[in-house]
Batch of 2 targets.
Target 1
Amino acid sequence: MKIVYTFACYNILYIMSDFVNFPKQALSYKSKTKAWRKNCVQWANDKTYFNMSLVRNSVRHKMININLLNGKLNMEDLSLIVNPSKLKANFIPDKIQHYPIMNGKLNLLQGEEIGRGFNYRVIVTNPNSVSAIEEAKRKEVLEAV
């Protein structure tokens, strides 16, 4: 629980730090130089959807997971576990063999998900639209008779 709380606080501080880095706006017109304008545009550009770190991280993590499923290991990611102190020693492996112990279970879950039918269900939120459709059908029946 403490780890989740710390992570949530970190995210809030990270988001708040973005606004702290925003160039000061309460300046006189003469103080707003070309460099100030460039900083404002650069800050806005960094906040776009594709430059957002959460999106980049999610895409990067998806690619790592796909590569792991396909048996490709990224040694940069594993170095945090294999060599957390970043020692330069002969006993630290340069390459690790991948054993796909989870692939069978993941394929089973994927097959179950594909095999399960998705029952579509349409719900009308406007009750007037239902009565309008019923009224139109009633008029068609009366005209036909």
Note: Residues 1-47 form one domain.
Target 2
Amino acid sequence: MSDFIIRTEELSDEQIKELYVPTQNDKKILEQLKSQSPVLLVGSRGVGKSFLSKISQINLMENFEKEKIFPVFITFRSVSLIQSGNSKDSYVENMKEMVTRQVKDSDLLKAMMINGQNFSILAYAAGGNPRLLLRSIEKIRSFNSNTINSVFREFYREEIWMEQSGLAEKYPGNSIFIDWGRKFVEEIVIPELKDKNDRFLSTNKSTTAYFWIHRNSPQAVKEALRILEYTGVIKQQALGIKATNAEIGTRYEVNIGCLLAFEANPQQKAMDIINNLSLGRMSEYGANSKAYNDLLSAVPKFSEPDMSECLKKQLSKSIKVLEITQWQKSKLVELNVKTIGELLLSTESKLMQAYYVGEVKARQMKNAAMAAVFEYLFG
């Protein structure tokens, strides 16, 4: 199967228009982006912030003669189902259309259509994040039950957590928060949610993927959760939610894929859990929860690192850590471009020295590689 394009920066305007699958929520966001009021669009990486910004720019540019508004798109690098307001059916159909517009393997496309429920499971597992969905599908050759279970074991149980822990190397000054956040969700929150779901399903009760943090919880805890939101492991679901004894706090949603990955047979239990989710069921962690103790005892040791040394360390890393296609990596290896720093210094003319790389492909490679470099360095 061909490599999926997972970054907006790698797409031309024509490709963006071709791949865009509009939803009702997208239309509301686009109207706000095109209005005169300032808008702060927030979300974890891969949910489509840059894509929607480019769509709004394209729309405004197409109406320039009439509206006389000249849009400029500048990047610093040169949803859950309930939040989106979509029904379950429309959500799955939107995600399916996004994928089918990129799938070039006809056999895989046929398998996806035949095994509709298994595709739905992967769509829900991605939690509204197109990038997670594309990356999970990129790893498979079929949509049978064994393959779906392997996605949960390899991607949602291992790879996504490796990325979370990998942030500690990129940002050593935040390593305490990063490591504790993983331990908190992976070893405390998810096992508790799984235990609840096992009991709820056995008694025909609603299931959960949610946990609640008291609004007076330590700031260090909130910072750790904010980093987890960036990687897509969790997302903030709602503020000002009442819990036991009318206490107020924030409700978070654990990524469905990460939650299902703890099941012995994710494919078998997935739809039972997904179809019975209830916002009213959640694990609660108070302002002085014992679960915070390890973090609070470690925070006094926190100190900012020498950022110049951090940058040198990142630039010396292998290009293998970048999220570019295997073909692009192989061409860089041909040119003896091995590190991030060497890639940043490479010109398009140098890239054209690789076999089968002309001017157009060189520009595409440079743009894709630069976007990946800056995303890796700066998130």
Note: Residues 76-85 have pLDDT under 50 and may be disordered.
